[in-house]
Amino acid sequence: LKELIVDTDPGVDDALALALAFRNSNLKIDLITTVYGNIGVKQSTNNALKLLTFWGKKVPVAAGSKASLLGRNFEARSVHGNNGLGDAKFPAPDKGLLLNTNAVSSIHKLLSNSDHKISILAIAPLTNLAILLKEYPEDRKKISEIIMMGGSWGRGNAGIFSEFNVFNDPEAANIIFQSTIPLTIIPLEIGRMAQINKNTITSIKASGIIGYSISLMFGGYHSGPDRNTFNIYDALTVSYLLHPEFFTLASAFVAVEIGGKYTRGATVIDDRGKLKQPFNAKVAKKVDVEAFSNWFQKQW
Ligand code: BDR
Ligand code: CA
Questions:
Q1: What is the pTM of this model?
Q2: Which atom of ligand 1 is nearest to the CA of 149?
Q3: 3-class SS letters over 182-217
Q4: Do 217 and 252 form a contact (C-beta atoms < 8 A)?
Q5: Span from the CA of 225 to the centroid of ligand 1 (angstroms)
Q6: Which of 165, 195, 223 is the best mutation target for the ligand 1 pocket, counting ligand atoms within 8 Å of the beta carbon and taking the most?
Q7: Is the pLDDT of residue 276 over 90?
């Protein structure tokens, strides 16, 4: 059983990641923390609560940052719809799951009270986690690993070379990359390799009310180059937790461009020691698309 904190900005692919995690008894989510990103933090928090209510799960939710460390935020409503969930309607949220402590204090409290280490699944801008490490540096000892969706080997989706989650808060990403916490990165290219298509959605839809509700989100999710394929980036992190054998990882030195004039938020992934820096992460280089797709289709 793997114990987790999920830091998220739901988001259609976040919703899919959560659904996969909720449906798998090998994963136990202790806490969900929310952050700005695909949409504002108020809506992302509401979405996390809606999804929990829909799945009948009782996981505490703590609301986090409304902007980056430098006070900025770039949303992705044109991708995820105005409500962040592809404009699909979910039942009213159970507000009783919302903690009255914020994301950072809630993670700190959970880690301090735990007698063992807990993993963090980071599928959104990294602001909450960066603030945690700044305010409570000793907490890093309680984090067994961070598995994040973010960064890219090559070109980006938010900037020319910058992936959305890192682009939103490069300073925060920098803190995570330098934290010395074991870090596994599932970058943009891996999500692009393992897209789902309309046929997959049709088969999910056919699986009953859950599948039907999931499929509704894709009606308003604009992620692929055409409207036939969809990037489900965040969902890949959950499949990595359950099936690391689907992925080929490379040890690398990973850094983020903070000062770049044209490349702010770009990740530099050096898996060949060119920069002569110690390796600080494992980065997915390949995914077995067939194995992933077979597994994914069986989840509904
Ligand atoms: C990442 O950005 C968000 O739009 C997605 O939810 C995912 O976490 C992809 O770049
Ligand atoms: Ca996300």
A1: 0.97
A2: 8
A3: CEEEECHHHHHHCCEEHHHHHHHHCCCHHHHHHHHH
A4: no
A5: 15
A6: 165
A7: yes
Q: Which residues have C-beta within 8 Å of that of residue 281, sequence separation ≥ 6?
A: 177, 183, 184, 185, 251, 252, 253, 254
Q: Whose CA is nearest to atom 2 of ligand 1?
A: 164
CB 132 within 8 A of CB 33: no
C-beta of 185 in contact with ligand 1 (< 6 A) = no
CA nearest to 219, candidates 80, 47, 40: 80
Report which protein residue has its CA nearest ligand 1's atom 4: 38
Which residues, in sequence order, are CB contacts of 153 under 8 Å at separation 6+?
A: 187, 188, 189, 269, 283, 285
State ipTM: 0.98
Q: What is the mean pLDDT of residues 2-16?
A: 97
Sorting pLDDT into bands at 50, 70 and 90, what band is 189?
very high
**What pLDDT shows up at residue 224?**
80
> What's the CA gap between 117 and 36, in Å, rounded?
26
Percent of the chain with pLDDT over 90: 96
Structural contact between residues 289 and 193, judged by C-beta atoms closer than 8 angstroms = yes
Measured from the alpha carbon of residue 38, the closest ligand is 1
Closest CA to 151 of 289, 281, 292: 281
Strand spans (E) along 35-175 = 61-63, 118-123, 143-149
- Give the H or E element holding residue 247: strand 247-256
Give me 291's structure tokens.
């194995």
Ligand 1 center–CA 4 separation, angstroms: 19
Q: Which residue from 186, 163, 169, 159 is spatially nearest to 130, judged by alpha carbons?
A: 169
Q: What's the pLDDT score for residue 226?
A: 79
